[in-house]
Amino acid sequence: MALTPVTFYILCGSLGAGKTTLLMRLLEHWKAHGKRTGVLMNEAGSVSIDGPRAGTLAEQVMNLAGGCVCCDTKEDLSWGIAQLVRDHGSDVLILECSGLADPAEVIDAVTDVYTARLASLERVIALLHPVSTEESHSSAYVTTQAIRCADELILNKRDLYVPGHWERFRAGILEQNPYARLWETSHARLAAAELLAPHQFVKRAAPTNVLLGKSRPGPSQRAAYHPIVTTIPLPSPLNRLRFLAWIKTLPKELERAKGYFRFAQEPELQEFQYAPPGQATITPLMLLDEPEPALVLIGRGYDVDRLRVELLATMEDEPGIS
Q: Phi and psi of 108, rounded to 5°?
């Protein structure tokens, strides 16, 4: 019997911003609501420091120490998710990334077709604070990626900064991500229920729609860019020529596309991979455990609905296939 994928959250952000403090608040919230929370802790060192703290509130903690989850421990991440769901019965999962892990790579890892059977990415939460100009190049890059990928941007440690400095910091964040909700906090103090509640994501018209953990009312229309990950099932084989034509229409905002399917009148399973600026690849292969045909699209700022309709139009129903 197929399992319903478990809700999965990514908690990322700059070094020292207070991610573990926020994680503990979220774990308290889930525990109070009877959730069996599984935590994946990714720390750059070979020994987990924060894992034991999380273990006081979580149902189970898996430590992915000794590397950043975006590269060294990608397979460990998939294994950890499987352990938490299948062996420990977790019904909520959260990954706390190290300050050296690229969230874009993490998103790619958790949307692997096999991992996606177990976990469904719900939201990317980035915790940030005004960082030193002496920040290393790798840390600065990861912080930039966290800002860009986030659905929720939490600017923390406001109490430590003078207004002028803070305003410049906030303005710089807003320029990098016009889609996420913005929160301004001290000591990562906010209402977990408000942060986790379902809501409509829209591109901001005003500077922010959340201030100091209090939601402001916003537009109600659906935004085509969210979620950052969209999975499109492909119940019928594809017409090769139409699909090749569809590839040429991929928008520049699409950062990643991948999946499996078959072409009409061709027996081989095909693997599709696209990661600009490289060319898209279509490769025949054999798998003992074949996934359901589907494409996964990763990106923001493009018309998801139109791309979905145009992709489905490349399907070619064969006799006997509905």
A: -60, -40
- For 64-114, what is each residue's pLDDT tens digit? 654 455 445 567 788 889 999 998 899 999 998 876 778 888 888 888 888
Cα-to-chain-centroid distance, residue 46: 25
221 within domain boundaries: no
Do residues 134 and 161 lie in contact, with contact meaning Cβ atoms separated by under 8 Å?
A: no
Per DSSP, the three-state class of 259 is strand
Alpha-carbon gap, residue 237 to 229, rounded angstroms: 23
What one-character DSSP code corresponds to residue 85?
A: I
**Residues 19 and 167 placed together within one structural domain of the fold:** yes
Same domain, 20 and 111: yes
CATH code for the domain in which residue 127 is found:
3.40.50.300
Residues 279 and 178 in one domain: no
CA dist 57 → 25, 71, 126 (Å) = 10, 28, 21
Q: How far is CA 154 from CA 18, 74, 142, 206, 220, in A?
A: 10, 26, 16, 17, 22
Output the domain CATH number for residue 281: 3.30.1220.10
Of the CA atoms within 13 Å of residue 139, those in its CB half-sphere come to 16
pLDDT tens figures, 33-62: 999 999 988 754 433 334 444 545 555 777
How many domains does the structure of the chain reveal? 2
Q: Is residue 145 part of a domain?
A: yes
Range of the domain at 284: 229-312
Residue 316, C-beta contacts closer than 8 angstroms, at least 6 positions apart: 236, 237, 238, 239, 242, 264
Q: What is the pTM of this model?
A: 0.80
Same domain? For 88 and 113 the reply is yes
